[in-house]
Structures are given as C-alpha cells and as structure tokens.
Amino acid sequence: MSPQNMVMKKEIFQIAKELCRELRKMSTKSEQLFWLVVRNRKLLGKKFLRQYPIFFRYMNKKTFFIADFYCHENRLVVEIDGKIHKRQKENDELRTYIINNLGIEVVRFSNEEIERNIEKELEKLEWILTHPASLS
Q1: CA–CA separation, 129 and 94 (whole Å)
Q2: Which structural domain range is residue 27 located in?
Q3: Are strands 76-81 and 105-110 parallel, antiparallel or unpaired?
C-alpha cells in the first residue's frame, strides 16, 4: 500500500469516527429508547454497537455507511427510520442492497413503532436474532 493510500485510509477512518461521535450526541428519542434496552448485552446477551461505520469500496474508493445499531455476532444492522426515510426510500433500498452484499442483514423499524410499542419490536428482533435465516 502506498503512503498516499495509507494516509487516505487513515483519513476515512477519522472522518467516520468523528461522524459517529456526532450522531451519538444527536440521537433521536427512538434511538435512545432502543439503546436503553439493548446496551450492555441486555437483549439475549448480544452486543450491540450504536452509530457504527460499515466500510466498503465503491468506484474503487473506500467509503462507509453509518448504521444506527450493529450486532457483529449476528452480522445484523438495525436501522430506526424517521419520517425522512419515507422520502428517501430508493436510497435506503440501495444502502440495504450494498450492506446485504457485504454479508450483513438489515432490519428496519420506524420511530413510531419503537415509541409506540417497543416490546413488540423487540420480540421481532429477538426472533431475527434467534432465527438468522429469517431475513433471507
């Protein structure tokens, strides 16, 4: 790897790290509620990370998405979508497609679902975590 590529690699990781920190500070109510019930292995003993960068190559350049939550053990991204996601459905579908091609599954919940009945959504998530093939 050339010195220039190494510098670019460090830069992209630094950018991702800073963006993740900022997003953690600006968590939505739904994300905060979800985090309270999954942090510290509270859900089935699974470790979840929040605002986690998923790196990949696109057009021969390293780039990334930031997942709302990520469980490495199950290679599962959990996205909690606000109203803006209704307007960017195609972008979300492309993002999911790319993440799926990295061997990572994506499950989406809406802010409303989490805030209205988090227990029901957690039951769905528990099913997915205990039946990994259920998303395929």
Answers
A1: 23
A2: 3-135
A3: parallel
CATH number at residue 11: 3.40.960.10
**Distance between CA atoms of 66 and 20, rounded to whole angstroms?**
7
* pTM (global) more than 0.70: yes
Main-chain phi, psi angles of 55, to 5 degrees: -90, 145
Q: Give dist(CA 58, CA 47) in Å, integer.
A: 28
| Number of domains composing the chain | 1
Rounded distance between C-alpha atoms, residue 16 and residue 89, angstroms: 23
**Tens of pLDDT, residue by residue, the chain (136 residues):** 555 555 567 789 999 999 999 999 999 999 999 999 999 999 999 999 999 999 998 888 889 999 999 999 999 999 998 866 566 778 889 999 999 999 999 999 999 999 999 999 999 999 999 987 756 5
Whose tokens are 């309270």? That residue is: 36
